[in-house]
């Protein structure tokens, strides 16, 4: 067979007992690796995405599992322990395509939902809404959405069903929900957003809400040069619309919240169509609260495409550490009856993602809003009087490093509707736990305790004064596995509800009474069951099988435990071997790293499956963080290792803070300690041939490994790295490295930048970056390239044109080839 790389591994001459070197990767190895990388994890079954029916009890899910009838939508009723086929995805796609005169891919269905007590499906195609009858699957245009009982996807409907709220021309509007909405477009697209999604004239009957001219992970696009403040010629809003504000402007607009990685509407998009904004209605529908984003003064980062006849400017608004102006938002309350709005009396805030952190009391007389100072060292929960917008501080949290308000972005703030008690997440005792306060802000008690880490509030049961929550650790031997619990408000009566080993993902039934539990482990595929509130299994909904994976040459990863650099702290990791692993051979090692701090190299210790990490019901092929760099990479003749090092999340506060203000550490000494300990256990690990790979923060860490530990790491591939925190997002550097206000701060930041250590490079380093990356701008890598060049260091560089932060499969294959050519071959195994 032909070798994947040009050279062939040299044979080792035996002197006493030696381990043989691994042969070069063959075309068959590469083909198997590609099959594993591209494997569709949905076909395994076990993981479901429930589409809840209006009764909040029954749900439907689309299964691609071979064992369940691939492409079948099932209707499940846990009350009767029933599950029956409802319709086929292929038939639905064909019917929707026929009605819309477009092609609909059955494996990438647009969003859909069951309505009419499960007798109809509502979905969109070509920018219009369609209703399809069951079981005939005959589809018709929805026409007037109000008659069909649907909410335009650009609006947020009030709880009483009377009003739709939305943003138009940067201002807040409402319109009667019962007023017909004419289809002015006739269903004919007038433009294209560049991604194949049709846009429609003015308001039409529906919108795909696809941002135009926007790239994944980008912030707001900005025009080259000074911002044009000339008022545009706006289109009129939909008929019957009532303006609640008139002072919205381009850079200080009511509406979409600024958030890196989200897909906010472009600034110009609001001129032509309504926008679903960050709006939260009060339960009595008398008021709503809306974000007003302030991005005035935020700097413009240059970014341009070079693949056309003339470079195209894609510059955008972006704030780095130390910037004078950073994105912030104010909160406004709108009084529907009075047609007035007023600003909430809390400081402008661009720090916390409080999508679920604005909590109305059940009587609509109080609003809770979380806020943080820019340095992230103080977080405050404010109680707002909705009638006036006046606030008072209810709870205040401080830290010498940074306050983590929640776990993985879940805003863990909740109100008990009966007592008014407030539940608040804190790491004040050294671990992430939940605390209870009275409605007046007086501390009552801590709920969960010990060396577990609270994950998420699932449900508050005021009637029985109990709270349901998920937490890492607890019943699990592995602290990175989540389990589900019930506990009384006073902290007594803790009950574990998910006894099976592994990681448990919980979804609460909207009507209550039961919950869905999807559990899995590294070597066991997912299983989804419905459980009663005492944890008893009611029904096994879907059971995954790894047989399709094993049929293509896959074998499961292995878990391990080692000690950190201190020789005391336990670290947890996973290890991948090639299918044809031979313990008589000696294998080069590749460390796949992500340094955190918000997560580690391993997310949950869940079933690894194929290396594409598909996690949604409809998942288009794309390479994301580390795709193809687990089991697929191991198939090329490597042992691939991932470990959550010191400085990552889901452990104690001290563990998490370990690399604070010293991000260049990256947990690398722990990665090295891991490899050395594993090599003592397993002589088939070759510690003289160790490579390192990482993407994004992992790209920063991989390059740092090559530059700060050149004696250990021989080959590295660093993708899309944020190699200097001074040129990355302000919210990241200032949170994890500290403020950047003085010359001393700048010097400290410089010590964390990879270019500072460019002279240390000894091994083979490949840097990869997309020239349209607006998460980690390409200047991050080019600054390191400049330093390596000035130090006369040989290295390799791949700039991928038109690629954003997520890279195409070509980059992954170049990384594969680089490791095979420089690490797997050309070095003889050492004798023992």
What does this structure look like?
The longest helix has 16 residues, at 809-824. The protein is of the alpha+beta class and 832 residues long.
Write a concise keyword list for the protein shown above.
single chain; about 850 residues; alpha+beta; five-stranded antiparallel beta sheet; 48 strands; about 30% strand; globular; disordered C terminus
Topology, element by element:
Blueprint: E1 20-21, H1 27-38, E2 51-52, E3 59-63, E4 72-77, E5 82-88, H2 89-100, E6 112-115, E7 120-125, E8 128-133, E9 139-141, E10 156-157, E11 163-168, E12 171-176, E13 191-192, E14 198-199, E15 242-243, E16 252-254, E17 279-281, E18 287-294, E19 300-301, E20 304-305, E21 312-313, E22 316-317, E23 328-335, E24 340-343, E25 359-360, E26 367-372, E27 378-384, E28 391-398, E29 413-415, E30 422-426, E31 433-437, E32 443-446, E33 453-461, E34 466-472, E35 482-488, E36 495-496, E37 503-508, E38 514-521, E39 524-532, E40 537-543, H3 547-550, E41 558-563, E42 570-576, E43 585-592, H4 631-634, E44 639-643, H5 653-656, H6 668-681, E45 685-695, H7 697-708, E46 715-719, H8 730-736, H9 743-751, E47 764-770, H10 779-790, E48 796-800, H11 809-824
Parallel strand pairs: 1-43, 43-44, 43-45, 45-46, 46-47, 47-48
Antiparallel strand pairs: 2-3, 3-4, 4-5, 6-7, 7-8, 8-9, 10-11, 11-12, 12-15, 13-14, 16-18, 17-18, 18-23, 19-22, 20-21, 23-24, 25-26, 26-27, 27-28, 29-30, 30-31, 31-32, 33-34, 34-35, 35-36, 37-38, 38-39, 39-40, 41-42, 42-44
């Amino acid at each position: 067979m032909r070798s994947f790389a040009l050279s062939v591994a040299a044979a080792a001459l035996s002197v006493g007992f030696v381990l043989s070197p691994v042969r070069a990767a063959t075309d068959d190895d590469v083909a198997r690796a590609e099959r594993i990388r591209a494997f569709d994890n949905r076909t395994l079954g076990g993981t479901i995405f429930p589409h809840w029916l209006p009764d909040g009890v029954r749900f439907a899910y689309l299964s691609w599992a071979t064992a369940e009838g691939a492409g079948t939508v099932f209707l499940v009723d846990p009350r009767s322990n029933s599950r029956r086929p409802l319709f086929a995805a292929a038939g639905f796609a064909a019917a929707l395509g026929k009605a819309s005169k477009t092609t609909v891919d059955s494996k990438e269905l647009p969003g859909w939902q069951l309505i009419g007590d499960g007798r109809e499906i509502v979905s969109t195609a070509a920018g219009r809404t369609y209703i399809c009858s069951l079981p005939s699957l005959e589809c018709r245009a929805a026409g007037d959405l109000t008659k069909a009982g649907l909410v335009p996807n650009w609006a947020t409907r009030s709880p009483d069903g009377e009003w739709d709220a939305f943003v138009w021309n940067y201002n807040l509007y409402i319109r009667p929900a019962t007023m017909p909405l004419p289809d002015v477009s006739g269903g004919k697209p007038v433009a294209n957003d560049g991604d194949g999604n049709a846009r429609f004239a003015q308001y039409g009957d529906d919108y795909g809400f696809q941002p135009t001219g926007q790239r994944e992970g980008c912030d707001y696009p900005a025009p080259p040069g000074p911002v044009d403040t000339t008022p545009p010629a706006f289109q009129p809003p939909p008929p019957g619309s009532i303006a609640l504000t008139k002072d919205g402007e381009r850079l200080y607009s009511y509406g979409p919240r600024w958030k890196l990685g989200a897909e906010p509407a472009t600034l110009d998009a609001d001129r032509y169509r309504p926008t679903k904004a960050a709006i939260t209605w009060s339960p009595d529908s008398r008021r709503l609260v809306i974000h007003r984003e302030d991005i005035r003064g935020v700097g413009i980062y240059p970014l341009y495409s070079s693949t056309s006849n003339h470079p195209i400017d894609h510059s955008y608004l972006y704030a780095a550490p130390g910037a004078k102006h950073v994105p912030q938002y104010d909160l406004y309350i709108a009084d529907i009856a009075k047609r007035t709005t007023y600003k909430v009396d809390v400081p402008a805030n661009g720090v916390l993602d409080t999508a679920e952190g604005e909590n109305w009391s059940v009587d609509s007389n109080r609003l809770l809003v979380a806020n943080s100072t820019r340095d992230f060292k103080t977080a405050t929960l404010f109680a707002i009087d909705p009638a006036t917008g006046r606030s008072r501080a209810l709870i205040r949290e401080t830290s010498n490093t940074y306050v983590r308000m929640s776990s993985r972005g879940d805003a863990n703030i909740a109100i008990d509707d009966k007592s008014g008690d407030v539940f608040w997440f804190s790491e004040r005792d050294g671990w992430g736990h939940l605390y209870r306060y009275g409605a007046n802000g007086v501390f009552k008690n801590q709920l969960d305790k010990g060396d577990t880490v609270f994950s998420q509030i699932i449900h508050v049961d005021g009637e029985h004064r109990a709270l349901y929550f998920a937490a890492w650790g607890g019943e699990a031997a592995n602290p990175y596995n989540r389990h589900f619990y019930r506990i009384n408000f006073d902290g007594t009566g803790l009950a574990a509800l998910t006894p099976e080993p592994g990681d448990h993902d919980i979804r609460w039934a909207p009507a209550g009474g039961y919950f869905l539990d999807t559990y899995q482990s590294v070597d066991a595929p997912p299983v989804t069951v419905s459980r009663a509130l005492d944890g008893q299994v009611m029904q096994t909904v879907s059971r995954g099988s790894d047989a399709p994976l094993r049929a293509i040459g896959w074998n499961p990863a292995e878990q391990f435990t080692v000690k950190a650099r201190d020789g005391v702290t336990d670290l947890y990791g996973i290890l991948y071997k090639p299918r044809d692993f031979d313990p008589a051979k000696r294998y080069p090692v590749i460390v796949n790293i992500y340094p955190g701090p918000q997560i580690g190299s391993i997310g949950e210790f869940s079933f690894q499956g194929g290396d594409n990490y598909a996690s949604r019901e409809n998942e288009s092929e794309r390479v994301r963080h580390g795709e193809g760099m687990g089991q697929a990479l191991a198939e090329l003749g490597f042992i691939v290792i991932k470990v959550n090092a010191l400085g990552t999340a889901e452990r104690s506060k001290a563990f998490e803070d370990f690399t604070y203000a010293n991000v260049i550490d990256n947990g690398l000494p722990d990665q090295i300690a891991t490899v050395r300990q594993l090599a003592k256990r397993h002589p088939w690990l070759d510690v003289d041939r160790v490579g390192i790979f990482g993407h994004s923060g992992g790209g920063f860490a991989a390059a740092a490994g090559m530059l700060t530990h050149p004696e250990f790491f021989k080959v590295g591939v660093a993708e899309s790295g944020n190699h200097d925190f001074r040129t990355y997002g302000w919210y990241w550097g200032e949170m994890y490295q500290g403020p950047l206000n003085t010359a001393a701060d700048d010097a400290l930041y410089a010590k964390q930048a990879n270019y500072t250590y460019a002279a240390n490079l000894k091994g083979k380093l490949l840097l990869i970056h997309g020239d349209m990356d607006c998460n980690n701008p390409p200047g991050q890598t080019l600054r390191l390239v400049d330093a390596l060049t000035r130090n006369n260091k040989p290295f390799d560089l791949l700039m991928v044109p038109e690629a954003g932060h997520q890279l195409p499969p070509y980059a992954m294959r170049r990384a594969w080839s680089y490791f095979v050519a420089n690490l797997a071959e050309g070095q003889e195994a050492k004798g023992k």
